[in-house]
## 1
Amino acid sequence: MVNAPIDDLDSTGSRRTARALAIFTDIHPSEVKLTLQLFLIVFLMLTAYFMGKPVRESWLSVSVIGDLSKLEIKALSGFLQSIVLVGLLPFYTKLYDLLPRGKLLLCVNLFFVITFPIFYFVSPGLLNENIPYVGVGFYVWIGIFSVMVVAQFWAFAADLYDDEAGKRLFPLIAIGAALGAILGSILTNFMIDTANLDNYAMLFFAPIPLALATWLLWHVDKEEYAKDVASGENLKAPPEDPRSAWRIITGNRYILLIALFIFMLNWIVTNGENILFAAVQDNIAQMDVSGLTPKEVEAFVGRETTQFYSKIYFWVNFLGLLLQAFVVSRLLKFGGLAGILLVPPVVSLASTGAMGAASNLTTFTAAKTAENATNHSVANTARNILWLPVPKAALYKAKTAVDTICVRLADALAAATVISCTRFSNLSVKNFLIINFVLIVVWIIVALLILRERRRWEQEKREGLV
């Protein structure tokens, strides 16, 4: 674990790199190598994800399930994700108890590396015109990938840093995530617009950066394991906490509040995403497709959806990068944890107000871009820093559970919101926004409770009670 630096043992190159990186955050020369390795790992992971993510929307846009609308298919796909993850969680917890840290990370990542191309070969227009329900299956799969692989990575990072170092260095590592997301969006746009590749071809190229990230993650774990062995630490000691993930979460008020914070964040964001998706599909439906065959119309809808989302992801990630590089660490330094916990809900309030004032695709796009950029930078850094003081056994079990189940349970409730508002209540878009406004108020209350609990924990630590 990275603790106090030993500057006199650092190389000249590390000292120079540390001075160069000081524009982003305070970093000691002894921390440079590991931090840049983690920076590169998350960069490659997010590159892979944002090459595959736009395909998720386009595949759903051409999926047909009974008389369900595109929005209802998207919402129900999110609900199905939560069901699948509930079933997977006990299996993952058992893996954690059985496998060393490095093998656990390797097995999970390699599963996704292998399955990416499988979805490519069953995509529409390749082996079959459009295999029923596979688009929903891909939506579920990539949703699990996005939360499980990234949650594991940040648990690994929190395992390597102590609380003080993590607060300084997590904002810098997260810049790698923002850069990777931008590169993934750029590559997708280039391959579709310039190289004229089919949008599903992204599924063939996306596992390449993920495989590189997995190799580097394995290499870093070996290095850190060797350091721990040299220092006499036993990484194969019995788990500190044999309880299940759910018992750990419900038995610790601080962890439970983290779960509620992440749950509220994702419920609010997913509601907004569903509104935007509906607006995009309505806009595409109004385009002139006269003269096109049904098959050509399907391809047109998928391509337009992929291009829209790859572009909006680029701007979300570009703004997120600027915030991550120049705002997050300063918010944390001068505003403390309160600064990065309370800014995201305030921005969401403003975004919801803008969407309510002008109900059109341009306003929705601008509002969601601002909200998502803030959440991808400020909120994501906050949610990872919150885990720094949590014990190791609870870290891997509880964090993976919270970052997967709470995220996808929020998707399930967002799905319920959509179904209840479209099928039973016939509510308007403004009614959706009012629901989000109420949820944001609850989100702010949860953030304030976390701050109070964190102050209590820090006071007990100073008094030697923990």
## 2
Amino acid sequence: MLSPKKTKFRKAFKGRIHGNAKGGTSLNFGAFGMKALSPERITARQIESARRAMTRYLKREGRIWIRIFPDVPVSQKPAEVRQGKGKGSPEYWACRVKPGRIMFEIGGVSREKAEKAVELAAAKLPNKVKFVSRIGEGDS
């Protein structure tokens, strides 16, 4: 699973995800991609699960690029613990995804295969997504 090697701070604020993505909104590597339509926090497990779903469907042909990285530590307190006594310890890593962000790219496969792979991966993610392609292959 993805996680940073080191960070400046051990714990982070929860924050809010508002506005559209500032960068990473166009396809740079593959011919097809998955674009986020709603703001969401996506965990490293969800990214890995989506990647596995695509890789298994494509039977390792073509290439997949992951354009998001979980760099926000999410902390949790243990179950049945009283309030107070500070913030919980970091449990997992997440990535804040804004609408318009390209999350995955696929290259080297047919449009039909790429669409099906994106559909399978989308089922593993908490936010709404759409299939996008380069202008040459017919935009969807």
## 3
Amino acid sequence: MENYIISLDQGTTSSRSIIFDSNSNIISIHQKEFKQIFPKSGWVEHDPLEILNSQKRTLNSVLKDFSFDKKSIKTIGITNQRETIVAWNKNNGLPYYNAIVWQDTRTSDFCKNLIDKNLSKTILDKTGLVLDSYFSASKMNWILENCPKAKEDVEKGELLFGTIDSWLIWNLTDRKSFVTDVSNASRTLLFNIDTLEWDDELLEIFGINKNCLPEVKASSDYFGEVNIENHIIPINGVAGDQQAALFGQCCFEKGMAKNTYGTGCFMLMNTGNERIESHNGLLSTIAWKIGNQVTYALEGSVFVAGSAIQWLRDGLQIIENATASEKLAKEANPNNEVYVVPAFVGLGAPYWDMNARGGILGLTRDTGIAEITKATLDSLAYQTKDVLNAMMKDSKIDLKILRVDGGASANNYLMQFQSDMLQIQIDRPICKESTALGVAFLAGIGAGIWKKEELHNIRKVEKVFEPNLDEKTSEIKYQKWEKAVEVIRSWTN
């Protein structure tokens, strides 16, 4: 009997469920978008109950498509948007407030106050992360300070804090499992990535009670079980979306790297069992843990990538859909040098500028929607180069190939321009769902379907892009990008 794996992929703008067979073929996939909530400038929220319901609906849809014996579904993996935090009551299961999303910058001033108290180094040394509103801990603090019932229920032992994986698992296991994995825990600013424990000093800094936090497990482990039509299926794999994508791209060896073009743009490089401290604005994070073996990664986070294309569609309304952006970019006048800096929620790595805001530079009378669309796509490649430059300085590794995934990686114009900017090969797999596939791999390992060393044979390459632009021209374009970023930052700071 063939073995099948369900991946629940809970992202920033949509929830998806995918059923894979043991050769990584997609048997069924369903996706449902959910509402983005923007109460104030810089605030981004989601309704936790809508997230849960959207995930359940897609799960039910793939199961409806599945024509084989449900008993052949051996395991479930869960991957999720990271840093986004939910607080809920463990008795009634209701959230105290909307989920505060990783993009949200409402706690910037709180973080600046901690920086002024010289706490940045303590936090960096323990977590590998910079002190920024991007991460979960300051969001937890905000909920406690602004939701009186939440603060009251901490004393009663009724409040639970969890990243989205914990929220889903708790509900899907009928409120029996309150757990997370090391990759998600490592993104909270509360987890010591050396001792692999919630850190008392960090908890005190952010005012969080340890009893409110989930048990932390390995990424390939037993997380509880889900009852599907009276068939009990264990959850054997959990990982934050970017770590899951690194695993799904089979970047198992030190120095291998991937870039995911999703809502944001995230590049991770496997650094093996060695935690590398960044001196160039990157993060050191846990990639995954299997058994007792911890694998670390360097990460550069670009806050706005695919969401910039959504902005073209929904904000400016100059494209009908994301696919149209490729056609328009190819029609643009190559001599019209427009630069879009999409710092809608600040700038991530390597700048970490919470105050920066977006801008369009180089406009001329003949600039049209094609040129603005092209410049927006180009900004994803430029931001990726920002990160890769920092990553090579920190790791002392000269990257030759970058593995890519995520929705925008299907854009051939963007992938070719990315190769031109980086002057290296871009490797795009047949399966673009690397995030969901990665957590399916982790769950499959936990369920005994695969051994890690077998997975290289399952990943298949669809297309490799080689640089077409000479190195000198590439560098000139990039230098103009750096000037554009400098202008934007000087204007907003």
## 4
Amino acid sequence: MIVDVRTYNIAPRKMKTYLALFEEFALPILRRHIGDPLGYFLVEHGPLHQVVHLWGYENLADLEKRRAMRDADPAWAEYLAKTDGLVASQDNKLCRPMEWSGIK
């Protein structure tokens, strides 16, 4: 398994709007093509205005296949247009859980 750890930096004072749009529009699309997130978090201490989410994939080919399906969904483009300007920047890391990790 690989875990895609994504950190989104949301424009100041836009977190509530971003989260509402994500839950209403993005989450159903992501669940349809990628599955449920392994975790979805708001940063409470440290850099402000951040959302961190974790997505699990069997391997890199699985990640690429699922992302391609998501990107081909017309509803995904609509969601991106609705959130234009809300995400200031983003970062992602592909990680491999250790054998003894809680995430397998």
